[in-house]
What we know:
- Its EC number is 3.4.13.18.
- By secondary structure, the protein is an alpha+beta fold.
- It has helices at 11-21, 31-43, 116-130, 152-156, 227-239, 273-290, 292-295, 314-326, 369-385, 406-419, 433-440, 465-484; strands at residues 47-50, 57-61, 73-78, 100-103, 106-109, 139-144, 166-169, 177-193, 196-198, 202-209, 214-215, 245-251, 257-258, 262-268, 299-305, 310-312, 330-334, 342-354, 357-366, 389-390, 424-431, 445-448, 453-454, 462-464.
- The strands form 6 sheets. It has a 6-stranded mixed β-sheet with strand order 1-2-6-3-7-22, sandwiched between helices.
Amino acid sequence: MEYVIKGYEPADALRYFEEISAIPRGSKNEQAVAQYVYDFAKDLGLEARIDTTYWNVVVKKPASPGCEDKPAVMIQGHLDMVCEKNAGTAHDFEKDPLDLYIEDGLLKARGTTLGADNGQAVAYMMALLARNDLVHPPLECVFTSMEEIGLLGALQVDTSDLHSKYMLNVDCGPEGTVFVSCAGGLLQDISKKVRWEKAGGDTVSLQVRGLLGGHSAAMIDHEMGNSIKVMGRILHGIQKQMEVHIVSLSGGSKMNAIPRESDAVITVPAGQGDKAIEIASHIAATAKAELAASDGGLYLQCEKAGATERQMSLADSRQIIEFIFLVKNGVYTMSMEMPGLVVCSSNLGVATTDDTGVQLTDFIRSSDPTIRDHLDDEIRSLAQLLDIEIAPADPMPGWKYEAESPLRQLFMKLYKEQTGKEMVAVATHGGLECGILKDKMPDLDIIAFGPTADGAHTPDESLDLASFERTWNLILATLKALAEQ
């Protein structure tokens, strides 16, 4: 093929990035790229296996001569990418290659996401597998799938034949940071089956608007307003002064996003509609004042609505309102070891209504499994008291910070030697595959890092090619040091 990326080092890793960019690889569409990586490894004569259900690929490469007795190193990243494009961009993510170009030293894709998240890791691993002039311990390269939709490949990857002592995850950045901890997750699917009855009284429509929202990992400690919780507060306030029947309730769209908007339609006793609107408006104004410094755009659209045919029973409505009002949301615990790090949080992210009743989605994040389980138990106990169901769920493990990490110390030392700068150790409240693999292989010493790449998950995504090269050199230096120590 004719390569767009020319004149940059390391040319081999960038060539592989360009080759995988020609293969559609959105989440749940990894079969072709997984087969490509597997065939690539087999053509090199390397030991490789492919999971034809989840499309994870594992490739093993023997140590360079004289390093056979050194502990193995796992290098890990995911095959899939987020598929987003600008309006008007004619691109089919199911069949079209990415249209790569370079601008001011940045690699980009015209009108679409670039897939540096996490094509950078795939390219690095392929270059390491292909090169025979490097000094390194035994390598175990793990290519996972469906990371972008819940770390699904990592949850299913078979590690029974892996023996690595160290793990390099190349799914983080920017350059100059090393990640040392991440949160796990627990998804709570919450439901309340209701009894419907003929509606009566005044109908009132409420719409919470103007909140900023944000990612429930990165923004959970920014005191952003949660529209579903605000709606619960409003309905609870009305309910304290009159009977409230829910007709419908909705809000949010993703478990991992703080909901910006929510809607409710309720009925109240005949002649009480204006009073309900007055109560709701007062509570919304109070909430807006409380959020003035962090999320001050909150406003409530509230008005009488036309008559509706059905409403939920009073008992069911009360239980739903009280659950939303009382359920924990936001930061639950903070770290004492790493100031500013959220250890555990909860985000009530989605609310919907159908013929059976109301469904809610809550997502707990935690790097500490005991705190996660305690919060889960709190929420489940509240649900049980209010006759609300929460489906059983398996947690996604987190990666708890460990003060002692020889790999991290070595990596930071090599970075300073390479750049003259101090590397910053960072813990994230977001989810990484590191937590899942640490759970499967508890003795792993893990670091997560990557080159500078901006705009992930958007058509503005870019990869800094100079940073890509420096990170490549740091990987080589780390492997060489591990082989020689």
